[in-house]
């Protein structure tokens, strides 16, 4: 039986549960329960604050965990990072009041920086040889300069709107983060086999989420060019249409390339282009 530590509420909770559900693992959503056993896979979910997840997995109380890479880096937890999960993307950045004219890292010399990530910040400052004072604050770091607790902040940024709302400007991006799957380093053979099964499912899921399935009608004379535009997993599928001189072309592409490829395909005569989500890709 595996046990996976998941954030009980907060930014990673919903997407962690959605990922489990998408790979066929149903668990109860956390209300007052701390643990919930899956009926469909030998695993139970343990709901915790994200700060506690690295430690609980490092100690083996949970075999697996879903947490931001920022928390692992900050806590220096001895866990194995099994895979990136492609959600919870953010960065840890230094920000200073908008009114300051920032001229490089030297600006921070002698300044007070408020943060909930003192270890990552101290390491960064030490590497760059900057002597600043780190003020540890556990919540609402972004208001520290306005209330006079600090001159600058080091905090999580995703869209940057919180910084703007607090009259701050992001000046250095220090650490890129996203949600990751972590594991206790000392699993039994039986646990390893279960984890491998889970990992296989997660990888299929995370790959398929950023893919699109494309199908279209194409004049046969454009086929060679279309194949150059669509380098599918092996090569695109081509099927004849009832109308002479036309074929149907199917392929899987990166979602990020969608609009570029669609424009190129239309330019060589593609018609009736259908774009569909991919449920799973088993490579
Ligand atoms: P908890 O109560 O579990 O301790 P928290 O308040 O520490 O929750 P959240 O704000 O829910 O944490 O964020 C959890 C994680 O989500 C962060 O550690 C980070 O990895 C990720 N994240 C992604 N985008 C953001 C963002 N804009 N602000 C904060 N965290 C973000
Ligand atoms: Mg937390």
Would you mind describing this structure in some detail?
By secondary structure, the chain is α/β, with parallel strands linked by helices. Helix content is 29%, strand content 32%. The protein has nine helices and 15 strands. The protein has helices at 13-22, 53-58, 69-75, 118-128, 144-147, 161-165, 189-209, 223-229, 258-267, and strands at residues 2-7, 35-37, 43-48, 64-68, 80-84, 90-97, 112-115, 133-136, 152-157, 168-177, 179-183, 211-219, 237-240, 246-254, 271-277. The strands form three sheets. Strands 2-3-1-4-11-5 form a six-stranded mixed beta sheet. The protein has a five-stranded mixed beta sheet with strand order 8-7-9-6-10. The protein is flat and about 75 Å long. Bound molecules: adenosine-5'-triphosphate and magnesium ion. Adenosine-5'-triphosphate binds at residues 7, 10-12, 49-51, 68, 70-71, 88, 90, 156, 158, 177.
Task: Give the topology.
Layout: E1 2-7, H1 13-22, E2 35-37, E3 43-48, H2 53-58, E4 64-68, H3 69-75, E5 80-84, E6 90-97, E7 112-115, H4 118-128, E8 133-136, H5 144-147, E9 152-157, H6 161-165, E10 168-177, E11 179-183, H7 189-209, E12 211-219, H8 223-229, E13 237-240, E14 246-254, H9 258-267, E15 271-277
Parallel strand pairs: 1-3, 1-4, 7-8, 7-9
Antiparallel strand pairs: 2-3, 4-11, 5-11, 6-9, 6-10, 12-14, 12-15, 13-14
This protein binds adenosine-5'-triphosphate (ATP) and magnesium ion.
């Amino acid at each position: 039986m595996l046990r996976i530590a998941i954030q009980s509420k907060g930014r990673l909770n919903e997407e962690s549960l959605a990922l489990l559900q998408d790979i066929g693992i149903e668990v109860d959503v956390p209300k007052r329960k701390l643990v919930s056993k899956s009926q469909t896979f030998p695993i139970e979910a343990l709901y915790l604050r994200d700060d506690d997840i690295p430690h609980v997995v490092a100690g083996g109380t949970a075999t697996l965990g879903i947490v931001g890479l920022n928390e692992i880096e900050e806590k220096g937890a001895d866990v194995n990072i099994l895979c990136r999960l492609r959600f919870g993307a953010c960065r840890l950045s230094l920000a200073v009041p908008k009114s300051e004219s920032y001229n490089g890292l030297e600006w921070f010399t002698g300044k007070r920086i408020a943060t909930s990530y003192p270890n990552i910040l101290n390491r960064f400052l030490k590497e760059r040889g900057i002597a600043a004072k780190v003020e540890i604050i556990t919540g609402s770091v972004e208001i520290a300069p306005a209330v006079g607790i600090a001159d600058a902040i080091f905090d999580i940024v995703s869209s940057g709107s919180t910084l703007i709302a607090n009259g701050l400007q992001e000046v250095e991006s220090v650490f890129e983060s996203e949600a990751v799957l972590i594991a206790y380093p000392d699993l039994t053979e039986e646990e390893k086999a279960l984890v491998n099964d889970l990992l296989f499912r997660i990888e299929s899921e995370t790959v398929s989420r950023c893919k699109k399935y494309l199908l279209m009608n194409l004049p046969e004379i454009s086929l060679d060019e279309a194949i150059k535009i669509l380098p599918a997993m092996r090569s695109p599928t081509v099927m004849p249409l009832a109308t002479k001189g036309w074929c149907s072309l199917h392929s899987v592409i990166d979602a990020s390339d969608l609009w570029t490829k669609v424009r190129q395909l239309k330019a060589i005569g593609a018609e009736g282009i259908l774009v569909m989500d991919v449920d799973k890709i088993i490579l």
